[in-house]
Amino acid sequence: MRLLVIFLAALASAGCSGTPTKGTNNAASSNNAKVASTPLPVYGYEVVKSYPHDPKAFTQGLFFHNGSLYESTGQEGESTIRRVELETGKVQQKWDLPRDEFGEGSTVLNDKIYMITWQDGVGRVFDSKDLKLIKEFSYVGEGWGITNDGTNLILSQGTHVLKFIEPEGFKQVKTLPVMREDGKPLMQLNELEFVKGEIWANIWHSEKPEILGKPNHIARIDPATGKILGWIDLSRISPDDQPATNDPYDPKAENTLNGIAYDAASDRLFVTGKRWKKLYEIKITPPKS
Q: What is the residue-wise DSSP string for 103-168?
């Protein structure tokens, strides 16, 4: 029997982190929104090394823990949580979700892996050592990305609002709106990673004009205020894995950037995307002039 613990308040859908679907934007306004007086810094990248990545993996979550890479994948009938050998991309261990569920983000806190699903309202807690299922919980609204700050879980639901959740009782601690430089909500916050005191967020289809108008961008967010501290421009990092045009019917249309993993012990940063053939270790370079 599932242990059901409702830990989220209702939040309307703002799109999909899988395939295009119905949905309406929930752009709750922020009374404190101000237009930035100067442009935010835009950081670049250098590829340190590339590694094999399962080209069938519809990457939804990525993190590094105790020397191992972990990945959660989506799509009905294909969703898993898995431990992956970094050097080879080989799946060392995995847990398959029920075939009717669509897996989403994942994170590790206190040696427990927390994984959410997209529209199924089901989350799970696993033992990081052996991927043994510890318990299940339920929530209202969609699940997109999840990370943690060492104390609380941080959840994205495809809108501009992040939710901080207490991990044991799954009680909501606070909400954090994230606004663009022009004062508009930064919608479609997706896969998340906590890096050196900042929340780093993939923006699903950031190339769309109504979202950001720039491909493969990661937002660096202040977890205390929701202020965007800067952008990381990963344009063209993996061109063979992504569509050459914006044709929504292109077989690669959903092969978006969607994986950030930080290895704090070795200060290494990894990125990949949905159905990409490679995973990249990168170094962030200074802001562009």
A: EEEEEEETTEEEEEESSS-EEEEEETTT--EEEEEE-SS---EEEE-SSSEEEE-SSSEEEEE-TT
Q: In terms of Cα–Cα distance, which of 242, 154, 139 is closest to 193?
A: 154
Q: How far is CA 237 from CA 45, 216, 217, 280, in A?
A: 9, 8, 11, 9
* Calpha distance 286→289 (Å, rounded): 9
- Domain 42-287 class, CATH top level: mainly beta
The whole-model pTM stands at: 0.85
Domain ranges in the chain are: 42-287
Considering just the CA atoms, what is the radius of gyration of the chain in Å? 17
Cβ neighbours for 242, distance < 8 A, ≥ 6 positions apart: 252, 255, 256, 273
Q: What is the largest CA-CA distance in the chain?
A: 57
Which residue in 4, 258, 7 sits closest to 153, CA to CA? 7
Q: Residue 202 is encoded by which pair of tokens?
A: 């993939």
Q: What is the enclosing helix (H) or strand (E) of 231?
A: strand 228-233
Query: pLDDT of the chain along its 289 residues, tens only?
Result: 433 333 333 333 333 444 444 333 333 334 444 444 578 999 999 999 999 999 999 999 999 999 999 999 999 999 999 999 999 999 999 999 999 999 999 999 999 999 999 999 899 999 999 999 999 988 878 999 999 999 999 999 999 999 999 998 888 999 999 999 889 999 999 999 999 999 999 999 888 888 888 889 999 999 999 999 999 999 889 878 777 777 777 777 788 899 999 999 999 999 999 999 999 999 999 997 7
